TrEMBL record:
C2 domain residues: 502-620
Family per record: Belongs to the peptidase C2 family.
Organism domain of life: Eukaryota
Active site residues per record: 87, 253, 287
GO BP, one annotated term: proteolysis
Molecular-function annotations in GO: calcium-dependent cysteine-type endopeptidase activity
Span of domain Calpain catalytic: 31-346
Pfam families in the cross-refs: C2 (PF00168), Calpain_III (PF01067), Peptidase_C2 (PF00648)
UniProt-listed PROSITE patterns: C2 (PS50004), CALPAIN_CAT (PS50203), THIOL_PROTEASE_CYS (PS00139)
Gene Ontology CC terms: cytoplasm
UniProt keyword list: Hydrolase, Protease, Thiol protease
InterPro entries, per database record: C2_dom (IPR000008), C2_domain_sf (IPR035892), Calpain_cysteine_protease (IPR022684), Calpain_domain_III (IPR022682), Calpain_III (IPR022683), Calpain_III_sf (IPR036213), Papain-like_cys_pep_sf (IPR038765), Pept_cys_AS (IPR000169)
Name under which the protein is recorded: Calpain-5
Amino acid sequence: MGILGLFDSAIPYKGQNYKDLKKSCVSTGSLFTDAEFPPKDSSLSYSPDKVPSNVQWKRPGEICSDPKFFVDGASANDFAQGEIGNCWFVAACACIAENASLWKKIVPDFDGQEWIPEKNQYAGIFHFRFWRCGEWIDVVIDDYLPTRNGRLIYCHSPAKNEFWPALLEKAYAKLFGDYQSLVAGLTRDALVDMSGGVGEQIDMNEYKTEEKGMELFRILKQSYKNQSLMSASIAASGNDMEDELACGLIKGHAYSVTSVKDIPISTSSGLFSFFKREKIHMIRCRNPWGGTEWKGAWSDGSKEWSQVSDTMKKEIGLTVDDNGEFWMSFEDFCQYYTDIGICHIINTSFFSLKKTWKEGEAVGEWRSPSRSGGCSNNKASFLKNPQFVFDVTKDEDEVLISLEQFDRRVNKEAGDSQFTIGVSVLKTDLNRVYRMHDSLREAQSSSFVKSRSVMTRAKLKQGKYCAIPSTFDPGFEGEFFLRIYASSSPELKELTLEEPDRNSGCCCSPFYMCKAYRSALQILISSGEGLEGKDLDRKSDPFVIIRCEKEKVKTPVISNDLNPKFDQRVTFYQKTPKENVTLEVWNHNMIKDDFLGVCTLSMTQRSSFKGGNKMIGMPLMGKGKGAAKPTKGRLWVNVLYTTLLDTV
């Protein structure tokens, strides 16, 4: 389901239905007071010693004479941070406010929520929508806001009679239990909560070389083009948090990244002759505090802007307003910022000129002792994690994998913090339907981070893969949300059963369907050697069909190769272990495939396959009347036979 499609329905938070509550208040002529998030100290902080002093809860009509939900629509300039350290959230709001298709979904029926005195419909009740691990949640609030001396103490609009920023922040605080729980966080997480996008955190230390720097600029530029939401920050310790650098940037603050451009410049003055280029990579940022801005090259009113035409200045919306927004070169951006958060808005619409992704998603749970095995460092327990298989159907495809744990900030009073999480991707059997008990090679692994979410990108060849989300250490319990994006449908599915039911049949029954499973056969098709060239260029596009009892499995086609590297495995669960297994090699054609040869595994010799650690070269033979004659080439395989079904 597409990101924006998820907005169409939402679950009432704490069972509070906005329409029903508002209707009741309007009919009685009363203003709504939220019993679930009351105007009391408990809504300010989970800790009594962190409750701010001299706070009075007031409705907007008690703060100003002409309160409005919106004043002149929504913009990034609507949000100014208050006394609480939640610039990460304020920066996210500024990003969202620039995208009408997003904020109008977060603020449903925004016109209907506006103050219109003549309609006499105002009931002191509002609602906002946030995304939580695959579901949209509708959060209802009353309009009581914390003030001191008649002024809002938390997030507010510069327009004294505009209240949507303060009310949006209140709804978000309710979702986490109280305002204090919003202290310190990642802008990326707030952006995900307000868009349903895929979060990615980038450590700038990994992009220090010139080549890596250009790769990073391409990522940022493409993300901006795709309307992804971005932020940047400078790492700070407790001692230097919110320190202002000489260049004007604030440590520990989350800055919205509002534009990424290649800007044409004139080099007639020789100012940029060192770079020998006609365009300069530029980034536009915004400080949610406003006021304090970048003071270096390309800051507001700096001499560098004389190198840019008036037409281009107008095109990029250059202003010298003291609004916290500024431009800087990408070189300076990389020099000062240490972390970037990106919320990718993944396009899953068929009706788009941009790349369309197909999505697979699943909710899962780490549960001890059988489903919380820790990362791959824990060899004995790693596969005792939730397992999800997915398909790559193109010859090679870029795959995006996102793992999101349920936000533990809501349990802050109990001292809960985020788990260190990551996701590993293993190559698995083409016909894998039961849980893996032995590992094929690892195809990709994310970093393991103490964070709400992790994302990794992978270039994967055609085949079936197993994604294993895990905590770093074993034994942690909690829910998570896994998403996988590829060019074609990944068909994401959790593996829940350890093995076939051995008790579902009888080994003595004459009917196949009634027989019990007795053994397992695992075949790794490694490669082909010296195959016959059937095409006009004397090449072939080979693939293998494996037949075992009633099951048939086909490997992906390898293009234009007489010595193909298949590197594919299959696992069969057998009811009649004595029945031979065949491996047919074919050349793929548009109309009719060409037969190249077949080899047969004689299951009367199955005891010799119990080790499973020996590569076997099997000559290809003909079929039909030519069955006794060899054809050209051979197939290299590794075979394992076992009666222990829960070991493969």
